UniProtKB/TrEMBL annotation:
Assigned protein family: Belongs to the LysR transcriptional regulatory family.
UniProt keywords, alphabetically: DNA-binding, Transcription, Transcription regulation
Protein name: Glycine cleavage system transcriptional activator
Protein encoded by which gene: gcvA_2
Highest taxon above the source species: Bacteria
Organism per entry: Vibrio marisflavi CECT 7928
Length: 294
């Protein structure tokens, strides 16, 4: 262990790297300015190289300091994740879902899960598809979306639900027009400003062999949850994904305006961290997800 630096110097070094200011680092760590300076000197002395260039008005990392910062941050992150995992109760299962799926499908069904499995604490997060990392975010399970399980080589992927697109609107829309072409020409089209949703309208229209209506008015929203609420409110019509509006269709708040829905070559996958595959509680959550979606 003699190659290890004084371990108490590492959090100080990282704080100084973040702030590039000894005073701010001292405030963050609740130590004195001189203690910060002494820790940095001790670390530089141990390594035999300068990590930080300091003047009275300016501070910057040396090339060696920047390289060491990156390595130490990686190591610290590993320690944090390992500690978090060990602190988790065996009763807790952490599940991440696409935000709209979490809000419109998962959360309404949580009471069913709690009733059936009172001894399991299912903890939900809704990190977006492009941002979540099942390992870095310390997740047990996640719901991913794509056309191949190969998208998640570090997870055990299981097909959960094949995706379907459909055109939805208030039921009263069907009473106003004689054909779907008239609906497309006259109703405001609701779109979502999201790269994962940008092709939904065209994909649906191409499959139905229908024109989108070049003169139709468009209303753009930031996410599908907003767009669904807009359709319910009567703002317009919306091409969305079947699983997002399951409850709204069942309750009659929305109507599929052009039966049948279009099945597309994309799936929702249940992703499991490899070291959690044999966990009894994780398997219970997976089985419940499979039952609910069926």
């Amino acid at each position: 262990m003699r190659d290890l630096p004084p371990l108490k110097t590492l959090p100080v070094f990282l704080s100084v790297c973040h702030h590039l200011n000894f005073t701010k680092a001292a405030e963050e760590l609740c130590i004195t300015h001189s203690a910060v300076s002494q820790n940095i000197q001790n670390l530089e002395s141990f390594l035999g190289k300068k990590l930080i260039n300091r003047t009275t008005r300016h501070m910057e990392l040396t090339a060696e300091g920047e390289r060491y910062r990156q390595s130490i941050e990686e190591g610290m992150n590993l320690i944090v994740r390992a500690t978090q995992r060990e602190m988790q109760s065996d009763k807790q299962v952490y599940l991440n879902s696409i935000p709209t799926l979490a809000l419109k499908w998962l959360i309404p069904r949580l009471p069913n899960f709690t009733t059936a499995h009172p001894d399991i604490e299912l903890r939900l997060s809704a990190i977006s598809l492009s941002d979540f990392d099942i390992d870095a975010d310390n997740l047990d399970l996640a719901i991913g979306y794509g056309n191949s399980p190969d998208w998640w080589p570090d997870s055990v992927a299981k097909e959960w639900c094949q995706d379907q697109l459909l055109l939805v609107g208030r039921p009263s829309v069907l009473e106003k027009y004689q054909s779907i072409e008239e609906i497309l020409q006259n109703e405001t089209q609701i779109w979502v400003k999201d790269r994962y949703r940008s092709s939904d309208w065209k994909q649906w229209a191409d499959a139905k062999n229908l024109p989108l209506g070049s003169k139709a008015k468009k209303q753009v929203f930031e996410n599908s949850t907003q767009a669904i609420q807009a359709a319910i409110a009567g703002v317009g019509i919306f091409v969305t994904h079947n699983i997002f509006v399951t409850d709204e269709l069942s309750s009659g708040l929305l109507k599929n305006l052009a039966e049948p829905a279009i099945t597309i070559d994309s799936w929702y996958y249940i992703l499991c961290r490899p070291d959690k595959v044999r966990s009894k509680n994780v398997k219970t959550v997976i089985d419940w997800l499979m039952e609910e979606v069926s």
